[in-house]
Amino acid sequence: MTNEIYACLWFDGKAHEAATFYCSIFNHSRILTENPIVSLFELNGKKIMGLNGGPVFKMNPSISMFIHCTTQEECKRIWDQLSEGGTVLMPLNPYPWSELYGWIQDKYGFTWQIMKGTEDRMMPAMLFTADQLGRAQEGLDFYTSLFKHSSIDSKKYYPEGSPFAGKLSYAEFKLDGYPMVAMEGPNEHNYTFNEGVSLVVNCQNQDEIDFFWNQFTSDGGSESMCGWCKDKFGVSWQIIPNNIAEIMNDKDHGPIAMQAMLKMKKLDIAALLNA
Asked: Which pLDDT value is given to residue 125?
């Protein structure tokens, strides 16, 4: 199986505005489709969903977007534009691990880590904090065991002598070829994973939906509504059929399918089509 994976950002009515703002900053960016609830867009060729879900959830730094730029000038350009109305979490400065790095929360609440690197890249970054601190390696092993074409590509740990020695400071991995980052935040943080930033898995058939749903909701995970669930680390996932847009956008059947979906936890493709 090959599964498209991408991040979903939860907004309170500003998904279109945010998507337009982000697309004005990054190269190879465009808005793919839009409706009053969802804005689907690409940044640097990476798909992202903006969801107008209301005020119930807010994004936090537990899942951010990690940006590698090949020049300091590009780092500063992106930083300056994302800074508009935003909040600096770590200033854009030289650090022991990078000649230029910064972490910022933009005016919509999403956070970005920007670093000078050897190639232009964009990757969702998971930060294990609070009750999940110390479980990043377990998370890497779990996630890469579920998806084919997956790998743990690099790992760095806090050094001996550090109060955080043995904790994973930075790791890069791929899920079905989709690059991601995992980190541990050993300092005190007042946030952890929530629905504000989730990960979407597009599935080709009901067997794949069943597989991922069962894996994520077992061993401490939990079910939610409309294809949403949480894994044992608290990360939110949306497990959806890859033709969900086609089903929901059908002029005649779409509204009926939507009403059926609102009553479901795990999505049932046949039930959506036959509603």
From this structure: 98
Between 85-94, 226-235, 253-262, the lowest mean confidence (pLDDT) is in 253-262
Query: Rounded distance, CA 260 to CA 49, Å?
Result: 22
Show the 3-state SS of the chain: CCCCEEEEEEECCCHHHHHHHHHCCCCCCEEEEECCCEEEEEECCEEEEEEECCCCCCCCCCEEEEEEECCHHHHHHHHHHHCCCCEEEEEEEEECCEEEEEEEECCCCCEEEEEECCCCEEEEEEEECHHHCCCHHHHHHHHHHHCCCCEEEEEEECCCCCCCCCCEEEEEEEECCEEEEEEECCCCCCCCCCCCEEEEEEECCHHHHHHHHHHHHCCCCEECCCCEEECCCCCEEEEEECCHHHHHHCCCCHHHHHHHHCCCCCCCHHHHHHC
Please report the pLDDT score of residue 101 as a whole number. Answer: 98
Mean pLDDT of the chain, nearest integer: 94
- What is the predicted pLDDT for the residue at 165? 86
Which CATH number is correct for 5-184, 3.10.180.10, 2.60.40.10, 3.50.50.60, 3.60.15.10?
A: 3.10.180.10
What are the sequence ranges of the domains in the chain?
5-184, 204-274
- 253-258: long-range contacts (C-beta < 8 A, 24 or more apart)? none
The pLDDT of residue 15 is: 98
**Which CATH number applies to 204-274: 3.40.1280.10, 3.30.1540.10, 3.10.180.10, 1.20.200.10?**
3.10.180.10
